[in-house]
Amino acid sequence: MSALTVNDLKDIHDWLKDELHVPEDHIKEWADAPKKLYREPSPQDFVYWLLDCDEKAKDALTKNGPARFPLGDRLYLYYAGHGYNATTAQQSMIMPVSTRKTWIGVPMIPFRESVRLRGYFKEIVVVFDACRDVLGYAKDLSWPDQPDSASSSNDVRVFSAFASKSGKKAKEQQFGDGRWCGVLTQAFLAGAKAYAADDEGVVYADALKKFVFAAVKDRLGVDHDPEVEDDSDPNDPSSWPLFYAPRKLPRIVFKPVKTLQGKAALRRIATGEIVQIDLSAGTQALEVPYGYYGLTLPGLPEQKIIAAWEDKIVEA
Predict the structure, then answer these.
(1) Which has more pLDDT, 90 or 309?
(2) H helices of 18-160, where?
(3) Distance between CA atoms of residues 174 and 272, nearest Å
């Protein structure tokens, strides 16, 4: 694990513990700190963890009686590191035991489905911040765990966010505190903590999905697409509240590079709403909902901009 992914892992850990109040002993980390080079963690660690879940579920049912989701409301699965696609475009994480001659990984979707089909958790949130290079010599990985489908498994909600689509790379950038971090991880956290919340302070799955798209494109350009999916009905985004956080609006900051007269027009593409900006007033900032905007400066065609992070600087 590189220093960059360690930063992301710490941010996720701190968010779970300090803001979501997940007990420390409920957070299990498989950090890349093996006792010997090219050793643990390995795919077998994930299988052992699933078997541990089986035992815990049996104990819970013995103590508490029948329950649809015996191990809790929500499970978070987070991975940052090296990833790839096999020829079938299946997302896989690469284990430290891998070398150029010994390729060992974990296919992410089968692993996630092993959890979902058991029906132990009501909700599963997956964030996979890794590249997905298509490697012609990489074969589909066999996944040894094939659980029976629990009666509650079809009711398990799943939110999955992958840093890139098949054949693309994940990206890191330097953020405001000077650290290099994964763009997907930071976009997910920014939306979950504040920017994707509505007026009531609720972050719905559909809103977080749209925010992650906007935030990644804002940082990396319109050619970069994460792959985000959730099982909420897009016509009923209130169906799955993921998080609760005080809403924070990104700002578009206008910085005239010279004295300008006249007005600029800022159009919110989702609604068509237009706001006029007096350019002679100098530098000014507008708080706006996250999303896509069209900006028209005097005498120039409309340009597209994205507001997602704290400040979007526009030099006029």
Answers:
(1) 309
(2) 43-64, 108-118
(3) 33
For residue 277, the surrounding DSSP H or E stretch is strand 274-278
Model confidence, pTM: 0.90
The three-class DSSP label of residue 14 is helix
Apex 26 CA angle, 70 and 176, nearest 5: 130
| Cβ 209 vs Cβ 237: under 8 Å | no
Contact indicator for 130, 170 with CB cutoff of 8 Å: yes
Rounded CA separation 310/249 (Å) = 8
Whole-angstrom CA distances from 304 to 144, 266, 301 are: 48, 10, 10
Amino acid at 263: K
187 and 217 Cβ atoms separated by less than 8 Å: no
Phi, psi of 314 (to 5 degrees): -120, 115
Q: Which of 212, 170, 210 is nearest to 190 (CA)?
A: 212
Q: What is the dihedral of CA 56, 21, 240, 79, to 10 degrees?
A: -70
Query: How would DSSP label each residue in 105-143?
Result: EEEHHHHHHHHHHHT-EEEEEEEEEE--EE-TTPPPPP-
CA 93 vs CA 21, 22, 80, 213: distances in Å: 28, 25, 9, 22
Cα distance from N-terminal residue to C-terminal residue, the chain: 42
Structure confidence by residue, pLDDT tens digits, 1-36: 455 688 999 999 999 999 999 999 999 887 765 555
At residue 140, the pLDDT reads: 66
Q: How many CB atoms within 10 Å of residue 157?
A: 18
Residue among 7, 27, 6 at smallest CA distance from 16 = 27
- In our burial notation (b when 16+ CB lie closer than 10 A, e otherwise), range 4-26 reads bbbbbbebbeebbeeeeeeeeee
Using an 8 Å Cβ cutoff, are 242 and 210 in contact?
A: no
Among the listed residues 17, 49, 57, 51, the one whose alpha carbon sits nearest the alpha carbon of residue 147: 51
Q: Which amino acid is at 69?
A: F
